[in-house]
Every structure is written in C-alpha cells, then in structure tokens.
Design brief:
The protein is mainly alpha-helical. About 60% of the residues lie in helices and about 5% in strands. The strands form two sheets. Strands 1-3-6-5 form a four-stranded mixed β-sheet, sandwiched between helices. Strands 2-4 form a two-stranded parallel ribbon.
C-alpha cells in the first residue's frame, strides 16, 4: 500500500484537484444537471418534499445515485450537497483515470499531464454533447468505475474488474453497458489478431480471457453488482400507460413506445442521440459545421493512432487501444443507424420507428469521452517517453495549457434565454416564493425558469429541463408542453390574457400559483413582481 501511494498518490490527488477546479470554474454550482439529479435524490429519500411534482414522481432511473447522494441532498442545502457530491465523484474519477493511464503510459506524472490536456480539449467542445468533468451526476461515477474496470482487466484481476464494471452499470446503465460492449469488441479484435500473428509468444503475454470457472464467477459478480442499475433500466422497457385519464393534454391514442423514442431522439435529446444534429448547442448547424465536428474527432482518432506508435509496447497499452477502438466501432454503428439525407418526417414510418428505437441508447457517449482521452494520453506518453524538450518544459507546457483552459470562453456553457440580470431576478423571485408560499403549493413556471425546485423548493406542473425517462412520462411531458403552448397561442388572439382565462387554465393544471415571464399582458394584479417575472395567486 505504501509503495502504491508513493507511486500513485501524488498524481491521483493532483488529477482529482484539477478535475475539481475545472468543474468549479467552468460549471459553477448548480451545474447544468445538478438540480435535475439532486432534487430527485431528495425526493427519493423524502417523498413529502415537493409532493405532486410531475418529474419528481416519475420513474426513478438512477437509483444508486439517489440512494448514495440522497441523504446529503435531503439533509443539507443543495449547494453543500453538490460540493460534497463533486468531491466524491471527482476523487473516484481521478482514481479510475490514474489507475488506467498509469498502466498505459510511461512516466509517473503522465496521467496528470494527460488530464490537463484532456480538460483543454473538453473546454473546446465535444461531438455529441458529452462531458465527464463538471457537476455531480450518475455518469461521472459510471465513467470512474468503467476506467477502473479496464485498468484491472489489464492486470488480469478478473473479479475486481467484473465488480468495477458492474458498479459502472449500477451507477449508469448506459455508460457501464457500452463499456462492457466496447471491452468485448476490443477483446474479440485482440483475439483475432493473436490468432493471425506468429505463434511466438510476446514477453508480456498473458491469457486474454479467464478460465471457465473464473469467467463464470466474474460474470456472476458483474451481474450482482450491476443489479440495482439493471432493475431500474428494465422498468423503462415497459410501455404501461401511467398518464392520468381525463386530463386535457393526454392523447389516449398515442403510441407510447414510438412516440417516446421519437421525442427523445428528434426533440429532447437530439444533441446527444441524432448524429445528423450534433452541434445543436451552437447556433443552428449547417452541413459544413457538422463536417467540421466529425472531422475534428476523426483527426483526434488518427492523431492517437499515429502517436501510439512511439509509446512503449506494453500489454496494457494494446488492450487500452482495443477498448478505444471498441468505443469507436459502437459510434460508427450508431452513425450508420442515424445517417440520412432527408428530414425525419420524410422517411417511412417503419424506418423512423426502428431508427429512433435504437438511437435512444446513446451510441456515441463513450467515444465522445474516450477518443480525446486516448489522444491526450498519447501526447503525454510521447512527451514522457522521449523527455521531449526536458521534463521542466513539459510541466510548464501542460500546466500552462491547463491554466489557459480555466480562463478560456466556455464552449460547453449552458444555453439559456436569460441574461445575467434576468438570472439574478429569477433567483430573487424563487427566494420570495420559498419564503412566502405554502410548501405544498404547486406552480406553473416559465420554460426558461431553470432550477425552480432547487431555488424555490416547490413542485411544478412542468419543467422543460426535467423530462422523465419512462415512455409514458416522456410522452406526457411533451403533451403538457404542447397543450400549454397551444392554449397560450389561442388565447392571445385578442392580444391579452384575462383573469378568467388564467384561472381556467390554472384549474386544468391543478396549480396554485402562475409564474410568468414574457407571457402577457395579463389583466390580473400580480401577487409579486421582480423585473419581468410576475407571480399570480390562482387559488380559488
């Protein structure tokens, strides 16, 4: 243990500190998804908190996250829970990162240099909207255990690797599941290459696959560790209609499965799932933008292939390379599924149904993280192996890149319709609501009013960011949004909203307070107003 700490302790702590500092500067609390995850975790432990909120009472997808982070989320202020969660998440991620790259790269400090370069690449942008260093959420833990699993596989620590990969699935079934698939693809490729090579064994050769007995034990351990995540994921495959009957927004003839998949792929998560729409975090992308985006990742992949020729020929490096290729193969399959030259609605219904049914599984998630990680690792390993320009210069170069990263414009910043002033006004309005309204009151809030439950701690009729994960919940989320949008357009025919109209739609939504931003003019005296934000008491 002392030898491990002497060799790995310093790099691990510095990598963790770099991750933590990067997240603090570029994703201040609350990060983009922290209100989504931590409010759900609090409600998981205390169902009375924000009871009646549409999102909070939907399917609990990430139960391991809610179970572990729920106690701090339920007992301390949200910002404190977020910082504690970030500390734990980034320590685990740094452990996985350091354990993996220390086996792959020469030099004690190469994992740290690779981390600094990777953070610089992450600050520039991404392929499918994916990130790993930022706020605390389930996927950060998933990547941490996936990296540990790959690292321990290179040691032939079969049971430890199986447990780590099972925990990756438990924390985040998509991240852990694709990690297992990528490992299998890479392992299969190495098996074929081994069969085609000369029968002369290499100096560091080791069995690529475990013995049958150890293999079965490893599979059993993986399944046991993954069970909490798998049980929640399997519940999402059902199409039981849990939407409330008789509500004006519910379309009882909707095909829940296909509709939910289409909403996710085409609308809600197109920037993650649809390869023909990547880059939608930027201004509306054209073909040239999309080509540049894919070309940049192709360049990273080719650059990694070139640089790894000068890395020491370690078994761990070859097996890590096989894992990288496995993630790229998965992404290429996803690209083949999603590639098209016409809009979605010009395709036959059957083609739309099977495409969106497959694309919803995030085929690009791992490659989006692993390819720049591999490139950063190859650069750091190349510098360490040849002591390029001297170790001090290497430290200065990588360190300067990291410092410039912290001060560069945030290409991955959260898109918001609110200016800085309007965000302050929104937080002020939420604080007033938290202090002056009953805890069980339910609200209709503006689409741009993010993190309402975080700041105001009150349940909502609908939140644009907080979309459920089950098919019925996704469809109803879309129905609620469309129904209210249609009402707003129809009632604006006379260019105003009367008190009667506001009370009628509020009665249908079963809300107590109606919060507006740009909606109006409203012929009703607001209960309170901050800037352009107004709140109306619509209780009977």
């Amino acid at each position: 243990m002392r030898a491990w700490w002497h060799e790995r302790g310093g790099p691990l702590l510095l990598v963790a500190g770099s991750f933590f500092l990067f997240a603090a500067v570029r994703a201040p609390v609350p990060g983009p998804n922290e209100p989504h995850y931590l409010t759900k975790a609090r409600h998981f432990w205390n169902p009375d908190w924000c009871a009646g909120d549409f999102f909070l009472e939907s399917a609990d997808t990430h139960r391991v996250f809610y179970a572990v982070l729920g106690p701090p989320a339920a007992n301390v202020p949200f910002p404190v829970a977020a910082w504690l969660g970030r500390l734990l998440a980034h320590l685990l991620l740094a452990w996985g990162w350091t354990e993996l790259l220390a086996r792959v790269l020469p030099g004690r400090w190469s994992p740290l240099w690779a981390a600094w370069l990777y953070l610089g690449l992450a600050a520039v942008g991404n392929l499918s909207g994916e990130w790993v260093v930022g706020g605390v959420e389930a996927k950060v833990f998933g990547y941490a255990f996936a990296f540990l699993g790959v690292a321990w596989l290179t040691d032939r620590s079969w049971l430890a690797a199986a447990a780590a990969l099972g925990l990756a699935v438990a924390w985040h079934p998509v991240v852990g599941g694709w990690a297992c698939v990528s490992i299998a693809i890479g392992g299969g490729g190495l098996t074929v290459v081994g069969l085609l090579r000369s029968p002369k064994p290499e100096a560091d050769a080791a069995p690529l696959w475990p013995s049958p007995g150890i293999g079965l034990a490893a599979i059993a351990l993986l399944v046991v560790c993954a069970a909490p995540g798998l049980s929640a994921a399997f519940e999402l495959f059902g199409t039981r209609d849990t939407r409330p009957a008789g509500k004006p927004w519910v379309n009882e003839e909707a095909n829940l499965s296909v509709s939910a998949d289409y909403i996710q792929v085409q609308h809600r998560l197109a920037h993650h799932l649809d390869p023909m729409k990547f880059g939608t975090g930027q201004p509306i992308p054209d073909d040239d933008h999309r080509v540049r985006l894919w070309s940049s990742y192709a360049a990273l992949f080719l650059g990694w292939l070139l640089l790894r020729r000068w890395l020491p020929r370690r078994r761990a490096e070859r097996e890590f390379a096989a894992f990288v290729v496995g993630t790229v193969v998965v992404a290429m399959i996803g690209l083949a599924i999603g590639f098209r030259t016409v809009p979605w609605l010009e395709l036959p219904y059957e083609s739309i149904a099977w495409r969106v049914g497959l694309l919803k599984y995030y085929w690009f998630r791992l490659a989006d993280i692993v390819v720049p990680t591999a490139f950063a690792a190859a650069v750091a390993g190349f510098v360490a192996n040849y002591r390029w320009a001297g170790t001090r210069v290497a430290w200065g170069g990588f360190g300067l890149a990291f410092l410039l990263t912290l001060g560069s414009p945030n290409a991955n910043g959260v898109n918001s319709d609110l200016t800085s002033r309007e965000q302050r006004e929104w937080r002020e309005m939420c604080a007033w609501i938290r202090e002056n309204t009953p805890p069980d009151a339910r609200f209709r809030t503006p689409h741009s009013g993010i993190a309402f439950k975080w700041y105001a701690q009150r349940p909502q009729f609908l939140a644009g960011k907080d979309c459920p994960q089950d098919a019925a919940g996704i469809v109803e989320w879309n129905e609620r949004s469309n129904w209210f949008g249609t009402w707003a357009a129809e009632q604006y025919a006379d260019e105003r909203y009367s008190e009667y109209e506001i009370r009628e739609v509020s009665r249908a939504m079963e809300i107590d307070y109606f919060v507006c931003w740009h909606l109006g003019p409203v012929e009703m005296e607001p209960l309170h107003q901050v800037g352009d934000f107004r709140i109306y008491d619509v209780r009977e």
